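Question (not urgent): is this output format expected?
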Amino acid sequence: SLPPFAVVLAQVIVGVAATLILFDGAILTDPLLILVALIGTTVFLGGISAWTSRFTTTVEGAQYSTMPIMMLLIFASGTLLPTSVLPEQLARLCEFTPLYTAAELLGLGMGSAEGGFLTAWTEAAQPLAVLAAWAVLGIILAKRTMVFTRRR
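Got this back:
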């Protein structure tokens, strides 16, 4: 998972730099929250990838076996469709999905918290806990199901 993480980290650094330049030095509340969101999401997705490798025998099959999971996670993240247009119960459920919490942490790190650093970490408590739980689940699934054998 490290090469894709490095690519995403580079993209985020370029994106943050572009945002700061284009918006006249908009306040970056906390880059550490951004890094935590990226690391937590990478751990979760790496674990889920290892889990799906248990029942997927080919690279092509991996695309099909992970697609439903990824589509559901992307839909629930609030990035394609704002959760405000969803029924209240469904929107609340989306708040407990890993990509939603990652997006929330990215927003807090980029300055959506009104009170600065301390307020950002206070508002980040629930998303951090949810993302940590998903990361732990990804690790547990990977450890229990991934088999390190050569494929033919």
